[in-house]
C-alpha cells in the first residue's frame, strides 16, 4: 500500500513521518526494517536525531537505513571513499578534457543534488539524471551556445566515462544508476521517502525498486515547493503517484498575512495539486519595502534574508558589515571559526586560563613574526598537541612575545583592517560571535526547510532568470512561494531597483 503525504509549508511533515515510525516501532517493527530516506544528508541526520530523542531505547546506529538515497546506493554497492571521484580526480580529468569540472559533493550535501559548473558536463550529467539520451538533453538545453556543439559534447562525455572506467571510479549519479541495474534492495516493513518532489527520474526508478520490496510505503513532499527542475528533479512523478492521498492541513509556522499573500502567488500555478491548509493563529505582518534596510532592527529577533541569486547577497553582506551585524551566509559565519578561536584563545590567556594547542596555532596565525611571535614558532614545532598551555609557558618555550595586558585587537595584529573595523563595530552593538548568528543570508533555493521570525525577501531577478520567467512563470511562482513561506511572523517584500523583478508577490490576488 502506497500513501502519498502532501505537506504544505510548516505543517509538520517530519513530525508526521516520525509519528509513523513510532507507530511502526510500537507494532514490533525493528529499526533496521525501516527505511527513511531524506533528500539531503543534513535532513537524514536530523531525522535520526529526532528519532533517538523520541525513542531513547535506541541509539543512532540502530537506525541503519535513515539516510539519503545516494548513501543507500553507496552502502548496498559496497563502495568506499576511494571508489568515488574526489577533487584531485576532477582536476585531472578537467585538464585531460580541457573543461572545468568541480566536485559536486558539497552541493549534494547541501541541496540533495549536484551540478557541474561547466556547461558541457552539466548537460552530460542532466541526461543521466533524467534518464534521457545525451542528444535529447542537448536539444533541450537552455544554457546558450555551446562552442563545438554536439560533437564536442559527445567527445567530452566519452572521455569522462573512459576516465572513470579506467580508474574504477564512480560519481554520485553512477551510484544510483548502478543500484538500479541490480534491481535489488533491502526488504523494508516500513518505507518512507521525504521531499519526493525533488527526486530525479533515476531516483524515482530507485524508489520504485524499494517500494516493491516494502510492506508499507509513505511518499511525502509538496509539489508547490518543487524548485529544482532545472537540476533534474521530476515533480510530475510525485504529483501523478497513485495511492492513498493525505494532505496535512495545519501550518505551525506560517501566519495568516503571509499565507494569504503566498497563496495568491501559488494559486496562479497551472498544474498543481490543490491543497486547503490553515495558517497559525497569529496574524503576522506583511511589509512592502523600497528601501530594504530602512527602520529594520536586525538586533531584534532572528532574520532570514533571501534573494533569488547570489550576486544580490554580496550587496547585502556589504550593508551588514557596514552596520556591524554578525551574520551567517549559507554555512559560513561572517567571522571565521579560526579567527574566533584566535580571539577566544588570547582572551583566555589574559584571564590566566590555559589554552589548547589548536587555539595557540590559530592565535599565532594572526600575529606578525618577531612582533607577536618569534620566527619559527608559529606552528608550535616542539609542542605537545594534547597539552593545555599557560601564558608563561608560551612566553618561555613557544615564542610568544606580547604583554598579557594587551587587548585581543592589539595582540592579533595580522587581522585585516577592514575585518577588524567590522569586528569592533559588531562588538559595540553587543554582538556575540560565540553564539549562533541571528541574521542568516541565503538564496531561496538554499533556504528550503529553513524558517525565521522575520524574512526579508528581495524580488530582483537576474537577466537570465527574467528571460526564463517570461517563458515559464510557474517556475518562479514556486520559488518565491518557498521564500515567502519561511516567515513565522513578519514578511518584508523588497521592490527591485530595476524592471527585472518578481512583481507577482506584490499583487494582492
Name the features.
globular; 7-stranded mixed sheet; 6-stranded parallel sheet; 42% helix; 509 residues; alpha/beta
Low-confidence stretches: none
Helix content: 40-55%
Rg over alpha carbons: 26 Å
**Percentage beta strand:** 5-15%
Taking the sheet with the most strands, its summary is:
7 strands, mixed
The DSSP helix count reads: 20
Derived from helix and strand composition plus strand pairing, the structural class reads: alpha/beta
Strand order in the largest sheet: 7-15-14-8-13-9-10
The number of E-state strands comes to 15
Overall morphology: globular
User: Roughly how many Å apart are the termini?
Assistant: 39 Å
Mean pLDDT across all amino acids: 93
Explain the overall architecture.
- This protein has helices at 13-26, 41-54, 69-76, 87-97, 105-111, 119-130, 134-140, 149-167, 172-182, 201-212, 235-239, 256-266, 310-323, 337-350, 357-365, 391-397, 408-411, 417-428, 463-471, 473-484, and strands at residues 2-6, 34-38, 66-68, 188-193, 214-221, 244-247, 285-289, 303-307, 327-329, 332-333, 355-356, 388-389, 439-443, 452-458, 487-494.
- With 509 residues, it is α/β, with parallel strands linked by helices.
- A 7-stranded mixed sheet has the order 7-15-14-8-13-9-10. A 6-stranded parallel sheet has the order 3-2-4-5-1-6, with helices on both faces.
- Helix 1 crosses helix 2 (41-54), helix 3 packs across helix 9 (172-182) and helix 12 packs antiparallel against helix 20.
Amino acid at each position: 500500500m502506497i500513501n502519498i503525504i502532501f505537506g504544505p509549508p510548516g505543517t509538520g511533515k517530519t513530525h508526521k513521518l516520525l509519528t509513523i515510525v513510532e507507530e511502526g516501532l510500537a507494532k514490533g517493527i525493528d529499526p533496521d526494517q525501516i527505511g527513511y530516506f531524506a533528500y539531503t544528508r543534513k535532513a537524514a541526520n536530523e531525522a535520526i536525531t529526532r528519532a533517538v530523542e523520541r525513542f531513547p531505547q535506541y541509539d543512532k546506529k540502530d537506525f541503519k537505513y535513515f539516510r539519503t538515497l545516494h548513501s543507500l546506493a553507496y552502502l548496498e554497492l559496497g563502495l568506499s571513499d576511494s571508489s568515488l571521484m574526489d577533487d584531485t580526480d576532477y582536476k585531472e580529468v578537467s585538464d585531460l578534457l580541457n573543461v572545468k569540472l568541480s566536485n559536486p559533493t558539497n552541493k549534494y550535501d547541501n541541496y540533495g543534488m549536484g551540478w557541474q559548473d561547466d556547461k558541457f558536463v552539466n548537460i552530460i550529467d542532466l541526461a543521466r539524471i533524467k534518464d534521457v539520451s545525451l542528444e535529447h538533453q542537448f536539444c533541450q538545453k537552455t544554457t546558450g551556445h555551446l562552442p563545438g556543439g554536439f560533437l564536442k559534447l559527445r567527445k567530452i562525455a566519452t572521455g569522462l566515462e573512459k576516465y572513470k572506467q579506467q580508474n574504477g571510479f564512480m560519481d554520485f549519479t553512477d551510484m544510483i544508476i548502478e543500484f538500479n541495474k541490480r534491481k535489488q534492495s533491502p526488504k523494508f516493513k516500513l518505507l518512507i521517502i521525504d521531499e519526493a518532489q525533488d527526486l530525479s527520474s533515476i531516483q524515482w526508478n530507485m524508489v520504485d525498486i524499494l517500494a516493491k520490496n516494502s510492506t508499507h510505503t509513505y511518499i511525502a513532499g509538496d509539489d508547490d515547493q518543487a524548485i529544482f527542475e532545472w537540476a533534474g528533479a521530476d515533480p510530475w512523478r510525485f504529483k501523478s503517484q497513485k495511492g492513498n492521498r493525505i494532505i496535512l492541513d495545519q501550518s505551525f509556522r506560517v501566519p495568516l498575512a503571509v499565507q494569504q499573500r503566498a497563496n495568491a502567488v501559488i494559486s496562479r500555478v497551472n498544474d498543481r495539486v490543490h491543497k486547503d491548509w490553515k495558517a497559525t493563529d497569529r496574524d503576522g505582518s506583511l511589509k512592502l519595502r523600497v528601501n530594504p534596510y530602512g527602520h529594520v532592527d536586525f538586533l531584534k529577533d532572528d532574520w532570514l534574508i533571501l534573494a533569488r541569486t547570489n550576486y544580490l547577497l554580496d550587496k547585502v553582506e556589504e550593508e551588514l558589515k557596514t552596520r556591524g551585524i554578525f551574520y551567517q551566509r549559507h554555512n559560513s559565519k561572517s567571522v571565521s571559526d579560526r579567527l574566533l578561536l584566535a580571539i577566544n584563545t588570547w582572551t583566555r590567556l589574559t584571564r590566566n586560563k590555559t589554552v589548547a594547542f589548536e587555539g595557540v596555532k590559530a592565535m599565532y596565525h594572526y600575529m606578525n613574526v618577531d612582533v607577536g611571535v618569534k620566527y619559527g614558532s608559529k606552528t608550535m614545532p616542539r609542542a605537545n598537541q594534547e597539552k593545555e598551555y599557560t601564558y608563561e609557558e608560551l612566553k618561555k618555550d613557544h615564542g610568544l612575545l606580547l604583554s598579557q595586558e594587551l587587548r585581543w585587537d592589539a595582540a592579533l595584529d595580522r587581522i585585516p583592517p577592514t575585518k577588524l573595523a567590522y569586528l569592533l563595530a559588531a562588538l559595540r552593538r553587543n554582538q556575540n560571535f560565540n553564539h549562533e548568528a541571528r541574521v542568516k543570508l541565503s538564496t531561496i533555493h538554499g533556504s528550503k526547510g529553513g524558517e525565521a521570525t522575520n524574512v526579508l525577501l528581495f524580488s530582483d531577478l537576474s537577466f537570465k532568470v527574467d528571460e526564463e520567467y517570461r517563458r515559464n512563470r510557474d517556475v518562479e511562482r514556486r520559488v518565491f512561494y518557498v521564500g515567502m513561506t519561511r516567515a513565522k511572523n513578519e514578511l518584508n517584500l523588497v521592490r527591485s531597483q530595476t524592471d527585472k523583478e518578481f512583481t507577482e508577490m506584490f499583487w494582492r490576488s
